[in-house]
Specification:
By secondary structure, the chain is mostly helical. Helix content is 69%, strand content 0%. It has 2 helices and no strands. Helix 1 packs antiparallel against helix 2. The mean pLDDT is 88.
């Protein structure tokens, strides 16, 4: 179950990053910088979380 949750969260982070970058939420004006920074950060964190998940170094709930 933990692995399924991990993969779903990776997809959510990557998906949100792409949605931000293609301006799905239609940010305008001063919010434009938030769109770029948020999109890049979501994608980077999704990749990092995917790396940890698939390398097996992501701690479980009871391992903390």
């Amino acid at each position: 179950m933990r692995n399924i949750f991990g993969v779903v969260m990776i997809l959510i982070y990557l998906g949100m990053g792409v949605l931000f970058l293609i301006n799905f939420f239609q940010f305008t004006g001063a919010w434009e910088i938030l769109r770029w920074v948020g999109g890049v950060l979501f994608i980077i964190y999704g990749i990092w979380r995917g790396y940890r998940q698939f390398k097996g170094i992501d701690p479980g709930f009871n391992d903390r």
